[in-house]
């Protein structure tokens, strides 16, 4: 299915390594057989079947860029994109949800959080028992998300107190 | 926002004045604009959510004088020409596209076609009910296997049996099909003659041989009921035939020219609404400390939308002017055929561009199904499909150009 990217598989290519190609083929097959048939129902109900995240976790498609010590797949970024591409081909809606979870939330936590937070959240996010999201956009802050942000986190002794609203997360 | 609408209303006044609408037309447009805004616009959300058609809406439209625009006053109509009918379509579609579509199928495709082609007896029998909204009309041409090639591939047959015809076949994507009382139906009376073996019938849907196979679930124009219809040994008297036997093709073709001119007006009304919504949103929505209307890239979109609206209007009105007074049986060929196809082609694509940009101005909110701009965006596709797809419209234009 991705073979058209490589006319002669013997030649080196900057598109994909053989390993990445194998990953794409395997992921593509799995997503087509497991998820493609869910599209009609998801479109009708505007809802995500509860089986999707555990299935993604079981097959190792969560925490794509997170090292195995935290429960992730330990893949390079290009490989993660290849999997996202295959998933979106089978189901655009699951692709969107997956990317919000895996890239916007999980990868961000892995890259920026301290070890305590990583240990607390990443294993669950990588096995599909936890679902992640990212909240940036607000009713009054879209394209100007940073400049117009109203949500506040007020320091209170050892805590922060959050007030505000997020939309389209 | 009020001042905004007033400013737009004043603009429209000026535009209409330049198109020299008669006083009567202006009065009709004003009336339709007011009742559409007050009565039809608030129905949008539920119609879209539930594919819901309010039970008594046709009767209500009858009472409001929105039906039978081209029918003689003595039969309960308004006695206007097709240009005025198109203005009515434009305004209704602007405030509620789904009602505009159902209204067009009823008033133009069914009622006006019947007026042009029906016998005096048929007109007397059905037109008063269609004008009052007691009866709901539809037109059945498209079939599962016959869309762009509706005439050539038609499989529905009407077999003569004594004083009756017996109809068998199915029709699909029929606007108002699920709620219609009368359907102007096309069927083959002589299979050996191809398109020249088609006849038109007027069918009453309480006929035991008629069934609504399903009501369809659409992307846009939701609420306007669209159906798949089945005819199983549907027996009708020979008096149900509209026009002489095997002359259905001329009824279809001249009707389609008028339909395409109407569709252009539907596009204009909806594009005008897209402009209003885009403009309002651009003035209200602030990012980076300013209304997004202050950004040149948004201004560029507004300017382009406006240009599409007015170009489509100018061309659409020109085509309509050419349709006005079109003699019975004329159309379906020549200049009028080319002009209406071209106006419809242009308007469909102009509305596509206009609504895509206006939706984009709404940012993430335009992506939400329950916004008016999103409803307009979802409705768009049909306007490049119904009454002949963009490709079919181009085929017509090119054929006429090359014939000369
Ligand atoms: C389905 C969906 C899922 C989403 N998921 C998430 C999510 O998981 N997390 C999250 O935080 N956000 C999410 N978003 C929000 C998304 O990122 C914002 O909608 C987007 O950034 C645009 O912001 P806005 O909707 O407020 O539009 P606005 O910023 O109000 O933009 C409106 C219009 O103004 C234009 N505009 C604005 N500023 C300028 C300028 N300076 N010059 C020219 N034009 C300008 C825009 O291009 C746009 O056409 C999602 C949105 C959708 C629709
Ligand atoms: C909401 C809705 C309401 C409708 N209401 C009515 C109604 O009230 N009454 C009624 O009779 N019909 C109605 N229709 C049917 C409509 O007129 C048809 O859908 C339309 O004519 C296209 O036919 P099709 O869907 O079979 O597509 P097809 O004819 O199968 O076309 C598929 C594609 O092939 C292209 N194509 C076909 N032939 C050619 C060619 N020769 N050259 C190049 N491209 C070609 C088309 O342009 C199109 O892109 C409605 C449709 C919809 C969606």
TrEMBL record, chain B:
Pfam families: Acyl-CoA_dh_1, Acyl-CoA_dh_M, Acyl-CoA_dh_N
Highest rank taxon of the organism: Bacteria
Domain Acyl-CoA dehydrogenase/oxidase N-terminal per the UniProt entry, residue ranges: 22-134
Every Acyl-CoA dehydrogenase/oxidase C-terminal domain range: 246-401
The keyword Oxidoreductase appears for this protein: yes
The keyword Oxidoreductase is assigned to this record: yes
Keywords of this entry: FAD, Flavoprotein, Oxidoreductase
Domain Acyl-CoA oxidase/dehydrogenase middle residue range list: 138-234
InterPro entries on file: Acyl-CoA_DH_CS, Acyl-CoA_Oxase/DH_mid-dom, Acyl-CoA_Oxase/DH_mid-dom_sf, AcylCo_DH-like_C, AcylCo_DH/oxidase_C, AcylCoA_DH/ox_N, AcylCoA_DH/ox_N_sf, AcylCoA_DH/oxidase_NM_dom_sf
Protein name: Acyl-CoA dehydrogenase family protein
Top-level taxonomy: Bacteria, Pseudomonadati, Pseudomonadota, Alphaproteobacteria, Rhodobacterales
Family: Belongs to the acyl-CoA dehydrogenase family.
Cofactor(s) annotated in UniProt: FAD
């Amino acid at each position: 299915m991705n073979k058209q990217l490589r006319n002669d598989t013997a030649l080196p290519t900057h598109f994909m390594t053989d390993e990445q190609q194998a990953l794409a083929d395997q992921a593509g097959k799995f997503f087509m057989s497991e998820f493609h048939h869910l599209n009609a129902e998801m479109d009708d109900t505007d809802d995500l079947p509860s089986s999707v995240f555990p299935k993604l976790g079981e097959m190792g498609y969560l925490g794509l860029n997170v090292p195995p010590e935290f429960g992730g797949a330990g893949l390079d970024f290009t490989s993660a994109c290849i999997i996202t591409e295959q998933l979106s081909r089978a189901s655009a809606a699951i692709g969107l949800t997956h990317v919000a979870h895996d890239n916007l939330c999980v990868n961000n936590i892995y890259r920026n959080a301290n070890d305590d937070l990583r240990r607390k959240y990443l294993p669950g996010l990588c096995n599909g028992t936890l679902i992640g999201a990212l909240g940036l956009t607000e009713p009054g802050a879209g394209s100007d998300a940073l400049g117009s942000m109203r949500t506040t986190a007020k320091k209170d002794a050892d805590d922060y107190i959050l007030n505000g609203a997020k939309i389209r997360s | 926002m009020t001042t905004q609408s007033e400013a737009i209303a004043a603009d429209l006044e000026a535009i209409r004045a330049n198109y020299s609408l008669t006083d009567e037309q202006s009065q009709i447009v004003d009336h339709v604009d007011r009742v559409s805004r007050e009565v039809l616009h608030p129905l949008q959300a539920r119609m879209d959510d539930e594919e819901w058609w309010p039970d008594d809406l046709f009767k209500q439209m009858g009472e409001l004088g929105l039906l039978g625009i081209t029918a003689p006053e003595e039969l309960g109509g308004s006695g206007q020409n097709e240009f005025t009918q198109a203005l009515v379509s434009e305004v209704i579609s602007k405030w509620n596209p789904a009602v505009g579509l159902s209204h067009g199928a009823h008033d133009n495709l069914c009622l006006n076609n019947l007026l042009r082609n029906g016998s005096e007896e048929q007109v007397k029998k059905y037109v008063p009910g269609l004008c009052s909204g007691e009866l709901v009309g539809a037109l059945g041409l498209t079939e599962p296997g016959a869309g762009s090639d509706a005439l050539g591939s038609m499989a529905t047959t009407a077999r003569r049996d004594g004083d009756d015809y017996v109809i068998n076949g199915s029709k699909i994507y029929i606007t108002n099909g699920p709620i219609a009382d009368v359907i102007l139906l096309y069927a083959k009376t002589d299979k050996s003659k191809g398109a020249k073996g088609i006849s038109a019938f007027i069918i009453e849907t309480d006929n035991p041989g008629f069934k609504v196979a399903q009501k369809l679930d659409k992307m846009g124009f939701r609420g306007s009921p669209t159906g798949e219809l089945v005819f199983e040994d549907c027996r009708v008297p020979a008096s149900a035939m509209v026009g002489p036997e095997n002359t259905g093709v001329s009824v279809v073709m001249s009707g389609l020219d008028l339909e395409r001119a109407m569709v252009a007006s539907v596009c204009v009304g909806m594009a005008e609404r897209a402009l209003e919504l885009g403009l309002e949103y651009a003035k209200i929505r602030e990012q980076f400390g300013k209304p997004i209307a202050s950004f040149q890239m948004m201004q560029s979109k507004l300017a382009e939308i406006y240009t599409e609206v007015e170009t489509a209007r100018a061309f659409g009105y020109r085509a309509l002017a050419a349709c006005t007074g079109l003699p019975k049986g004329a159309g379906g060929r020549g200049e009028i055929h080319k002009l209406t196809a071209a106006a419809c082609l242009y308007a469909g694509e102009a509305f596509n561009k206009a609504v895509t940009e206006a939706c984009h101005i709404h940012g993430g909110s335009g992506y939400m199904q329950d916004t008016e701009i999103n409803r307009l965006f979802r409705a768009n596709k049909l306007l490049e499909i119904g009454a002949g797809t963009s490709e079919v419209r181009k085929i017509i234009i090119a054929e006429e150009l090359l014939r000369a």
